[in-house]
Amino acid sequence: MPLARRRLLQSLATATASSAALGPPLSAQQPPTGATAQLSAERLRVLQPVLERRRTQLQPLRDFVLDDSVAPLRGPLMP
Amino acid sequence: MAAPDLLYSPVPQLAALLRSRKLSPVELVRACLDRIEALNPKVNAFLTVTAEQALEQARTAAKEIGAGRYRGLLHGIPYAPKDMLATKGIRTTNGSRITTDWIPDYESAVTERFHRAGAILIGKLNLLEFAMGSGQKGLNGPARNPWDLAYSPSGSSSGSGAAIAAGMVPITIGSDSGGSIRGPAKSCGVVGLKPTYGRVSRYGVTTLSWTLDHVGPLAKTIAGVAAMLQVMAGFDRRDEASANVPVPDYAKALTGNVKGLRIGVPTEHYFNHVHPETDAALRQARSVLKDRGAVEVDITVRNASLCSAASGVILNSESAAFHEQRIKKHADLLDPLVRERLEAGTFHTAVDYIKALRIRTLLMEEMNRIFQTCDVILLPAGNAPPRLEGEIVGTDMPTDPPAPPRPDAFNLANVTGIPAIVLPCGFTSGPPTLPLGIQFCAKPFDESTLFRVAHAYESATTWHTRFPQLA
What we know:
The complex is a heterodimer.
Chain A: H1 3-16, H2 41-63
Helix pairs in contact in A: 1-2
Chain B: H1 11-19, H2 25-43, E1 46-49, H3 51-66, E2 78-81, H4 109-116, E3 120-121, E4 123-125, H5 158-165, E5 171-176, H6 182-188, E6 191-194, E7 214-219, H7 222-232, E8 262-266, H8 276-291, E9 295-299, H9 307-322, H10 324-330, H11 336-345, H12 350-370, E10 376-380, H13 411-416, E11 420-427, E12 435-442, H14 447-459
Parallel strand pairs in B: 2-3, 2-5, 8-9, 8-10
Antiparallel strand pairs in B: 1-4, 5-7, 6-7, 6-11, 10-12, 11-12
Helix pairs in contact in B: 2-3, 5-6, 9-11, 9-12
């Protein structure tokens, strides 16, 4: 993979995974995986400002500390 | 009775005329079809009109009613669903070029129930592509706001709101994952309900977000919406989120009595940055209800500011997952903004997503706490009057200068699953004169209390009797 694309992916991953609690950002040496692997360099350029805006919107959620007892609910609601 | 008066009549009134055979379902359907033919080129609410089938269903309804086999309030009433509900043998586009020619071989649960109730399918309604929020133009161009065609009816159930406001059809069905029924209801001056999560089956409705999707009714009045929910609600094992909870008789809630009803009014967050005319209309609405005996209770929704972020992560992640193959194979057919949103959704981490779901739990517990102290919560129905078409921006779009943070009063009900209703509460001073809306929320499965307070307010006001002057 071209180095420029690896660096762009790394900066995007860092932009969306800036909290230490989420683990280290993707390494520039690792190829992208999963759903992001299909995106061309051009698409990544288009998405970068969107991801930056989302990172700003997302930060309060990432900063918020949840009690261990809070679990995601599954299934239908009950009255 | 001449159209449009006929077509703006409340559902119970139409039902009485049909049952007594003073009005034939065929006459009613023809009135709708004539109005659609005249106005749809301007309003663009309908993507598909099923004229012949509707007339056939109307003739069947007329025979049944004539033979004394009356099925209920919706028997013989024309309706139209958002074009995300699968209708067997009828094109279902999702507002997308990707599925523009899709003809389902199955029926959605809701349209199936409407058919059993004798309601008459008259066509499929315009929407924003795959219900992906504001800013997109959709398959055939946007629906227009009948109050002023230069303005948006809001979305994503844009056709569902516009069709009622234009008097094209008395009742419609929409979907709501972040305000997509309630926004159009507000902007079009009609009533829209997002029921409790799991109250109405989503079987046969194209998914946007499994956690946030709801299907619900729109109509000119509370009685119409209540009659529709009576038919739509109920357990369906084909929807994994469907709740096996008894369905009450919603008509019993339409008493007009709100004496002692406790209305929770948030003191923080939701009323910040509300448009001045919206704020004035809401204050007046509160006075109306207090005059009728309701009492207000100050409430605080703790962690309310997290709701939009949690909703965004959940919706963006789940929609990207649902559309994974479409992103891979047909991205070039997507509207550019929809494509951006879906592709950007693939970058959310699993930890973000699960954290958002945990915040959902927190907010649901917060709702449980708040509903110990009040019966309904009053919220704005959006912060501002309808926008000009073409100036709609989604939350991902930048503005110049940057817009101030605007609390989103719609997401709370989607994230927590509580039912929420919007109805008209006034109009802007203009020009143009555009509708303003008020929103009430209640605890899970308590749509009856929503109908009670909304009906009381509606009975004390005349906003619901106004309709736009369309040629």
